[in-house]
Amino acid sequence: PNVELMWAMRAYQHAEVYFNLISSVDPKFLKLTKADEQIYGDFRKTFGDLKIDVLDPEELKSEPAKEKWRPFCMRFEGVVEDFNYGTLLRLDCSKGYTEENTIFGE
C-alpha cells in the first residue's frame, strides 16, 4: 500500500506537469519523450481498437487487459525513465482531473 501511495503521489505530480504542457502547447508539436513515435506506433498496434477519448476502466484493469498492458510497458524498459510507474489517466479527455474522472493505472 505504501508503494502504491508513493506511485500515486508521483503520478499526480506528473499529471499536473503534463496537463499544463498539453493545455498550453498544440499537442501535435509536443514531444514528451524521445520515443513518442515508437510508443504511439506500438500502442496502436497493440491496442488498435481501444477507444481513447473516453476510457473504460475495465479495458485497463481487468486481468485480460493487464496481460496485454504488462508486455507493452516492458518494451520500454531502458527507453523511457520510470516506464513501469503508475500514471493518472482522465477517463474522459474532455474533462479535467477530478476524483470521478481519474483512474490510477499501474
Automatic annotation (TrEMBL):
Protein name, UniProt field: PBDC1 protein
Pfam families according to UniProt: PBDC1
Domain Polysaccharide biosynthesis: 3-104
GO CC entries: cytoplasm
Organism: Asarcornis scutulata
Gene that encodes it: Pbdc1
